[in-house]
Specification:
The complex is a heterotrimer of chains A (336), B (325) and C (298). By secondary structure, chain B is α/β, with parallel strands linked by helices. Chain B is 34% helix and 21% strand. In chain B, α5 packs parallel to α8, α6 crosses α8 and α8 packs parallel to α9. Chain C has 298 residues and is mainly alpha-helical. Classes of the chains: A mainly alpha (336), B alpha/beta (325), C mainly alpha (298). At the A-B interface, α10 and α11 of A face α3, α5 and α8 of B.
Chain lengths: 336, 325, 298
């Protein structure tokens, strides 16, 4: 078990380093003088030189990499040019909104997808199953921002009571205020989670141990929750971990629609102003959260299914990825 | 117990069972069988003969799309073909224990062994956790598992094939069922382990007075274990009788050929009798002797009529026109 | 079926699945057929608009007409007009070519690189596979639009930036599809037999393994097409990526948000176009996937 965790932690670290490196190297690719681009056309030569010094633009690449990583480890993400404040401070102010929204959407995805999957899996290929899948497939095709606009049109409102300040999980009335944005993100992702759980349940239903449980005299609900659900949990949890990146992507857009003062708004401002340190900081933060959560997913899975520790999980997971990016339906329709 | 038996002298009585798939194929055509209390009955046949499907029908675990079309199954005098799901849950695992062919797949991979055995008690009894635990350990010891405290905390994938099969048996007998259905419990095992499992089933039958319905395609294990044997061919029993009668004096050509094709030391140096292969997979209803296409002694009548069971001597019956005198 | 593994010239086939697929081609299952039908119908709508767009546009896309602001949809303006009195039907129609070009570009980059990396790591495994996986893990942990934003921050707005950034983000999913296909077939006996016969790796990969996963790849491409449209429109909706001078559906939606309740049609029209295209591709992808699954089960 310890070996498994270490192996996973090692993979996580490598992935983290890679992502930081990718984001960092982009900065090197800026055509022309980065300082001039960031400060705009009206900047004076002194300002540019000062920024060049501050960012260490003219230092050799290895030193720059070293400095950047050293700063990152100390939690120093640099200084925003647009706002003239430390990036950490800006992110700290905006992050609670985004994270609250993402968590809310995430919970909505689980709350919506589990019952739907259970209902759909009751009888494969039934009218009910097909219609649930058709509807969720359609919501999957609706981008979150269009979903938000549809929701606005349906409920005839753009105002969510969020006139000022930022809401987060702790603020009163959060659930009601954030319902629409969270729903807009969640609805487009429910389909994926739902389908994976449904397929897993249908697959587990065919397993021999389910039949054996009937032979034990277990009732239908007991079989479903004690046996099948538990066995379907591993792919479901894994998919939830993989959806997380999409949920963050969705919340960045949705913040723009509902004018929520979160990371997404900050990021759009930063990109428009070519404020590179801020852009880097936000992207790295989101990537770190996604990677760490996926590491936790691996740990959880390993507690659910002890076999994972032994087998090569890598292939299992990448298989799941294939299916996700491919929305593979485990339809092993057996023709009799 | 005594009361039940006055109602019917058989623990299990199957009458004219017919099982069909959703496409209308007849998987079991016309099976009738009886099991007395304390008896070990064998059900022998090649793959596709419908022996597994019959047992599934008895246990109420037919796969989706396959259903009982005709016939009755009386378990202790009660017809269990048309009972509700709740009543079925009360019988299965309690009065009717089932051992499956593939032990590795019949155990839930994510639940510890002890808990899985315990589940049967949890469903059917009101014992407190301590009593349940003691009984689980007791049953595990009874099926010759050693070091049971440790074993109970293991997961199925950490066990050997023989151990898994024993765990399945423990699960099936923990409530002292009156009938134990063993669906090819030895096929996935090594020969040495096979013998142990056979001995174990014998022991359970002896010590607990459990009737056993033993399904196999392998005459050598049936010979060791069963009191009576039903030979099944394409969903119809072709020969019934005490094991010794059938082994010594097989009457139906199919049984004869089956027994002939077992390589034994006595047949050393001789050619084995080889049955002609089945050429077509006929799934409609039977109008003539189904074995006619492979039978070396086939004659005109075989292709026109369906033979009845002809009784030879007490209890030994076979469905062959050669016996119609 | 089992006895029909030999082909006409009585040669033993090395790739039984392909052979069997031909036998089964006539019996594409009903589900797949329905999926294809829905998919093609949905895709036909934008296609017709695209063809019309080439030859004829009812109105100018940019000229403003202040006397006809917020006209509700009628026979003259099918989808109504926006805040500058521009005909939305025309604008939606003329946004189509750019969307399709960008999606094709993204998938060209994603598919070709993904095919190369996926084939290598699936066939050779080991270290190549390990690092391929790490890189794709890293790329998968950032949402696609974030990469788009990073590119825009670096290189400024532009169509090429969008195509390259999203193209890179689409590599991992293609890679996974191809890699898992290769992993699955690599262990089959016909590959071992070919290796024993002395076939080169390139030949095995291209002539024997690739055909096995062709349907899957096609399904993945259909899906990638849909996802590319979604990603591109998200970026445009944020006002990044495609320069403002070009008409994109995402930007139309962004603009429409300002007068959503005065003219809901100005948001619904481009939104519906996105959904139609994406859903159509989804259905085609699902149909292809069902066929490929049938084959691999056969």
């Amino acid at each position: 078990m310890a070996r498994y965790i270490l192996q996973k932690a090692g993979q996580m670290l490598i992935t983290l380093l890679l992502i930081v490196f990718i984001v960092f190297i982009m900065f090197e690719l800026i055509p022309g003088n980065p300082a001039r681009i960031m400060l705009g056309m009206n900047a004076s030569q002194e300002q540019i030189t000062a920024l060049e010094l501050e960012l260490g633009i003219n230092e050799p690449l290895p030193l720059k990499i070293k400095n950047y990583f050293a700063g990152l480890i100390q939690g120093d993400l640099g200084r925003s040019i647009r706002f003239d404040k430390p990036v950490g401070e800006l992110i700290g102010a905006a992050a609670p909104t985004t994270f609250s929204l993402a968590i809310y959407a995430f919970i909505l995805i689980i709350v919506l997808s589990v019952p739907l999957a259970l209902l759909a899996a009751r009888k494969q290929g039934s009218f009910f199953d097909n219609s649930i899948r058709f509807v969720t497939e359609t919501t999957l095709a609706i981008p979150p921002f269009f979903m938000a606009i549809i929701l606005m049109l349906i409920f005839r409102t753009t105002q969510l009571g969020l006139s000022s300040g930022q809401g987060n999980l702790a603020s009163p009335g959060f659930l009601r205020q954030f319902l629409m944005p969270a729903l807009a993100i969640a609805l487009s992702r429910v389909a994926m989670a739902m389908e994976f759980l449904r397929d897993a349940i249908i697959e587990q239903k065919r397993m021999f141990y389910t039949r054996a449980a009937v032979g034990k005299g277990a009732t239908k609900s007991r079989i479903l929750f004690f046996h099948i659900f538990r066995n379907s949990l591993v792919p479901f949890v894994t998919v939830l971990g993989l959806i997380l990146a999409e949920v963050f992507g969705g919340s960045i857009i949705i913040e723009q629609v509902f004018l929520l003062p979160g990371l997404g708004r900050l990021l759009v401002t930063a990109v428009e102003a070519r404020d590179f340190p801020l852009t880097q900081g936000i992207i790295i933060l989101i990537a770190i959260v996604v990677i760490v959560v996926n590491f936790l997913v691996d740990l959880i899975n390993q507690f659910i299914d002890p076999r994972i520790r032994l087998s090569d999980v890598k292939s299992e997971k990448s298989n799941l990825w294939t299916q996700l990016s491919y929305k593979l339906k485990f339809r092993k329709d057996i023709k009799r | 117990m005594q009361n039940d038996l006055t109602k019917s002298e058989y623990i299990l009585k199957v009458e004219h069972l017919k099982v069909v798939s959703a496409q209308g194929a007849e998987l079991v055509r016309d099976v009738s069988l009886k099991i007395k209390p304390g008896e070990i009955v064998g059900l022998v046949g090649e793959s596709g003969s419908g022996k597994s499907i019959s047992t599934m029908a008895i246990a109420g675990i037919l796969p989706e799309g396959i259903s009982i079309a005709q016939g009755n199954i009386f378990f202790k005098g009660q017809d269990i073909t048309r009972i509700t799901a709740q009543d079925r849950c009360k019988i299965n695992g309690n009065q009717l224990g089932i051992i499956y062919q593939d032990a590795s797949q019949s155990l839930n991979p994510l639940i510890r062994i002890g808990k899985q055995i315990d589940e049967v008690l949890k469903i059917h009894t009101n014992l407190n956790p301590k009593e349940r635990r003691n009984r689980v350990y007791g049953t595990m010891r009874a099926v010759n598992l050693s070091d049971v405290e440790k074993l109970a905390k293991r997961y199925p994938h950490e066990l050997s094939g023989g151990q898994r099969q024993r765990v399945l048996i423990a699960m099936a007998i923990i409530n002292n069922p009156e009938l134990l259905i063993a669906d090819e419990p030895t096929t996935a095992l090594d020969v040495s382990v096979q013998a142990q499992i056979i001995e174990l089933i014998k022991l359970i039958n002896f010590s607990r007075k459990t009737s056993v319905l033993y399904i196999s395609h392998d005459f050598s294990t049936v010979k060791k274990l069963c009191d009576r044997v039903y030979v099944l061919y394409q969903g119809i029993p072709v020969e019934v009788g005490a094991t010794t009668q059938i082994i010594m004096q097989p009457q139906h050509m199919y049984t004869k050929l089956l027994l002939e094709s077992i390589p034994t030391p006595e047949k050393r140096g001789q050619h084995l009798m080889i049955m002609r292969a089945r050429t077509k997979d006929y799934r409609g209803s039977a109008t003539n002797c189904l074995f006619a296409e492979r039978c070396p002694k086939v004659f005109e009548r075989c292709r026109q009529e369906l033979p009845d069971m002809y009784e030879m001597c007490d209890g030994h019956q076979a469905a062959c026109f050669l016996l119609d005198k | 079926m089992r006895f029909k593994r030999k082909d006409k010239n009585n040669q033993i086939s090395f790739a039984p699945d392909v052979q069997r697929a031909y036998y089964r081609a006539s019996s594409i299952n009903k589900g797949a057929k329905i999926q294809f039908r829905i998919g093609f119908v949905l895709l036909a709508i934008p296609l017709v608009l695209f063809l019309i767009n080439i030859f004829y546009r009812p109105y100018d896309t940019t000229s403003m007409n202040m006397s006809e602001r917020f006209v509700t949809p009628d026979s003259k303006h099918w989808f109504g007009t926006d805040n500058y009195g521009r005909d939305i039907f025309t604008r939606v129609m003329s946004g189509l070519p750019l969307t399709i070009i960008i999606s094709i570009g993204i998938n060209l980059i994603g598919c070709s690189s993904g095919l190369l990396i996926g084939a290598l790591s699936g066939y050779y495994g080991g270290t190549v596979d390990y690092w391929g996986n790490r890189i794709s893990d890293a790329l998968l942990s950032i949402p696609a639009i974030l990469m788009g934003m990073l590119f825009v921050a670096t290189f400024g707005n532009g169509i090429w930036q969008v195509i390259v950034a999203l193209g890179i983000m689409f590599i991992p999913s293609y890679m996974r599809v191809i890699r898992s296909g290769f992993l699955e077939y690599r262990q089959r006996n016909f590959v071992k037999r070919l290796q024993l016969l002395g076939a080169s790796s390139g030949r095995i990969i291209w002539r024997h393994l690739f055909p096995q996963i062709r349907t899957r790849l096609m399904s993945a491409i259909a899906l990638g097409f849909a996802n590319a449209i979604l990603a591109e429109s998200s970026l445009s909706f944020l006002g990044l990526g495609v320069p403002p001078s070009q008409i994109t559906w995402g930007r139309m939606l962004k603009d429409a948000q300002g007068f959503l309740f005065q003219a809901p049609w100005s948001a619904i029209a481009p939104g519906l176009m996105i959904v139609t295209l994406v859903l159509g591709s989804f259905f085609i992808s699902n149909g292809l996937k069902q066929i490929s699954q049938q084959r691999s089960l056969a």
